[in-house]
Design goal:
Structural class: alpha/beta
CATH class of the largest domain: Alpha Beta
Helix content: 25-40%
CATH topology of the largest domain: Aldehyde Dehydrogenase, Chain A, domain 1
Number of strands: 22
Radius of gyration: 23 Å
Number of domains: 2
Shape: globular
Bound molecules: nicotinamide-adenine-dinucleotide
Strand order of the largest sheet: 14-15-16-13-12-18-19
Largest sheet: 7 strands, mixed
CATH architecture of the largest domain: 3-Layer(aba) Sandwich
Length: 487
């Protein structure tokens, strides 16, 4: 085994699942078992919810703002001190290639934690709203912000540390307590957060972690349980809808980060047009990123030039991916056989729809026994094709021509999703377009629009609410108005 057996973290204790049940953690590079993970039963999940509830109701955790901040800083330091172990897990378990593991998976997550911690000072716990005369007498008013309560944090497998941290640290900073339920494919990245929580000295019950092989059981328990106040979910739009339905009975506060099909718009006045187009290849972490712009929109009059640039870019990259040891490699395998089948299916759909396969499209068993599929690019795509409308979550780029700026905006917005996007061109023109795209995060000329101190989230069916940044902490706060009659 390459990874140590992972444990649950419930009420401050690291322990196996009830009855010692475990399941296999399958590595994406080889398709083989790389470790064993605790397989939580319903009883374990029940204990985790009860522990989180007790820690919220029976301790003064939610009132100790300074203490929580200092503790989260310490937790962050312990995570940083274990960077190499985190990188190792991202590589082995999530299939991150070295060039993606260090940058996006681990440093991105740890820098994100720093960004949220910086925002903490801006949380307004109490606001004096002054005195107002109403009904013939004067009232002094106060608005307070208080932790919502117990949070069920349900996360996906693609960038597990990043998404886990994006929920756990803001929720704990806000004064909530948390039950974290990671995807079945990435238990080790969640389990190590439990181990490091012990090292950082988190009080019992404020953070609980339940890993399990059943994708739905623990998440459904959290969603339906009246003791859980908030569900913070990142994952597919389909499961997001189910969570809203299941949470309706208890009118659960629901926060959703869902799928995307973001646009990468290159205007005719983009500096280094060909190079910018080449930079649109969907290769980083094999395209398994929710805000990844996977629809390339290029001006009709420069379409042939763009296609030629892409042809060169894909040919040049053909031998550079799928290398576990090469430090500059940014594309590894897909997470699982299931995901490989899904992406393969979309390649067939694209061909059947009449799009032209410019590059890739093949499953590559010669790369190893894991889940490898080539960087893939479809050109001559229409935006109403399924490969342009549906989230593939693999290394597949689709290329669509546009007539003018108006048309580019129309195509970008012609999607059920609205998570991210990128625009390249002269700054004023590109910014104008960025403002018209119905999505939560847009990069102009390659700027970083996703960092820990900025809000992140989607429009339309990409979700609701924001995480990260000040908005990400406020997502876990209730608002109370107190009016005191002046006597
Ligand atoms: P998924 O929706 O299948 O699973 C996400 C999580 O939900 C997992 O922990 C899973 O076990 C759990 N789950 C499954 N059924 C459930 C149910 N009935 N009730 C409660 N929980 C349940 O998604 P995935 O395959 O793990 O991840 C890929 C998807 O996640 C993609 O669609 C991607 O766009 C999305 N994603 C979005 C963001 C974002 O921030 N918007 C980030 C990463 C991934």
């Amino acid at each position: 085994m390459l990874l140590p057996e992972s444990q649950l973290y419930i009420d401050g204790v690291l322990r196996p699942a009830k009855g010692g049940k475990t399941y296999d953690n399958i590595g994406p590079w080889t398709g083989e078992v790389i470790g064993l993970a605790a397989d939580a039963s319903a009883e374990d999940v029940e204990e985790a919810i009860a522990a989180a509830r007790r820690a919220f109701d029976d301790t003064d955790w939610s009132n100790q703002h300074r203490y929580r901040y200092e503790l989260m800083k310490k937790y962050r330091d312990v995570l940083v001190a274990n960077r190499d172990r985190l990188v190792q897990i991202a590589r082995l378990e999530a299939g991150a290639a070295p060039g993606a593991a260090f940058r996006a998976h681990i440093d991105g997550a740890l820098n994100g934690a720093d960004g949220v911690l910086e925002c903490f000072a801006n949380v307004k716990w109490e606001e004096d709203r002054g005195v107002r005369k109403e009904m013939g007498f004067e009232t002094k008013r106060l608005v307070t912000h208080e932790a919502v309560g117990v949070v069920g944090a349900i996360t996906p497998w693609n960038v597990p540390l990043y998404v886990n941290i994006g929920k756990v640290i803001p929720a704990l900073l806000a004064g909530c307590t948390v039950v974290l339920k990671p995807a079945p494919d990435t238990p080790a990245m969640a389990a190590i957060m439990g181990e490091l929580a012990v090292e950082a000295g988190l009080p019992p019950g404020v953070l609980n972690i339940v890993t399990g092989s059943d994708p739905a059981m623990a998440g459904e328990m959290l969603t339906r349980d009246p003791r859980v106040d908030v569900i913070s979910f990142t994952g597919s739009t389909g499961v997001g809808k189910k969570i809203m339905e299941n949470g309706a009975a208890t009118l659960k506060r629901v926060f959703l980060e869902l799928g995307g099909k973001s646009a990468f718009i290159v205007l005719d006045d983009a500096p280094n047009f060909a190079q910018t187009v080449m930079g649109s290849m969907v290769i980083f972490h094999a395209g398994q990123g929710c805000a990844y712009p996977t629809r390339l929109l290029v001006p009709k009059e420069r379409y042939e030039e763009a296609v030629k640039a892409l042809e060169m870019a894909y040919a040049g990259y053909a031998s550079k991916w799928g290398n576990f040891d090469e430090p500059t490699c940014i594309m590894g395998p897909l997470i699982s056989k299931r995901q490989l089948e899904r992406v393969k299916g979309y390649v067939e759909i694209g061909k059947a729809e009449g799009a032209r396969l410019l590059a890739g499209g093949n499953v590559r068993t010669d790369k190893g026994t894991g889940f490898f599929i080539e960087p893939t690019c479809f050109v001559d795509v229409r935006n109403d094709m399924r490969i342009a409308q549906e989230e593939i979550f693999g290394p597949v780029l689709v290329v669509i021509p546009f007539d003018d700026d108006e048309d580019a905006v129309r195509i970008a917005n012609d999607s059920i999703y609205g998570l991210g996007g990128a625009v390249f061109g002269s700054e004023e023109r590109a910014t104008k377009i960025a403002k018209r795209i119905r999505a939560g995060t847009i990069s102009v000329n390659g700027g970083m629009s996703i960092t820990g101190d900025l809000p992140f989230g989607g429009y339309k069916q990409s979700g609701m609410g924001r995480e990260w940044g000040l908005e990400g902490i406020e997502e876990f706060l209730e608002v109370k108005a107190i009016g005191t009659r002046l006597l």
